[in-house]
């Protein structure tokens, strides 16, 4: 069948219609992926690394005390936690966990956001009732990771949890001795 120039011109409107359907299809797929595709942190799978002193236990005097450090070339954070965290460490009844600060979306650096109102206003995220503790937030595209859930991505474009750092106590100090691979 011969397609004439006139027949093509009469169907020009198909292009924006197809484009609109395509855009809505993509948005639907993306929204589904970031809403239902979040992965919780599995059993820790640390890759051994050099032992590196991060902090003295006495540096972390209160829950949510934080020490930032670099390990295996990545910015990381050590937190004193109010409860035990999978992949963390408990010493003398105190709980600790450490995470890579490299966002699992596109690699920006996450920071601890202590203020629930900042989280709600800047990140558009309000934790469920009873989970109003500090979260690790990425300011590039506003993903939020929950340290109490072993670094799981709980909001935003990131789906994979933050890699955890293996902690060891050596005398009065905490050491990093391994890290999970980047997703
Ligand atoms: S790089 Fe962190 S949310 Fe995009």
Structure in words:
The chain is 20% helix and 34% strand. By secondary structure, it is α+β, with helices and mostly antiparallel strands. The protein folds into 2 domains: 5-36; 47-179, Rieske Iron-sulfur Protein. The strands form 3 sheets. It has a 4-stranded antiparallel β-sheet, with no helix packed on it. The longest helix is centred in the first third of the chain and has 23 residues, at 14-36. It is elongated, with a radius of gyration of 22 Å. The protein starts with a helix and ends with a strand. The mean pLDDT is 92. FE2/S2 (inorganic) cluster binds next to loops.
What is shown here, in short?
Helix content is 20%, strand content 34%.
What is the CATH architecture term of the largest domain? Answer: 3-layer Sandwich
Count up the domains: 2
What is the CATH homology-level superfamily of the largest domain? Answer: Rieske [2Fe-2S] iron-sulphur domain
Widest β-sheet, arrangement of strands? 2-3-5-4
Principal-axes geometry comes out as elongated
Poorly predicted residue ranges: none
Biggest β-sheet: count, sense, barrel? 4 strands, antiparallel
Ligands, deduplicated: FE2/S2 (inorganic) cluster
DSSP E strands, number: 11
Strand residue content: 25-35%
Briefly note the structural class of the backbone: alpha+beta
Rg calc: 22 Å
Helix content: 10-25%
Write down the secondary-structure element order: HHEEEEEEHEEEEE
Quickly count the helices: 3
> Which CATH top level class of the largest domain fits?
Mainly Beta
CATH topology of the largest domain: Rieske Iron-sulfur Protein
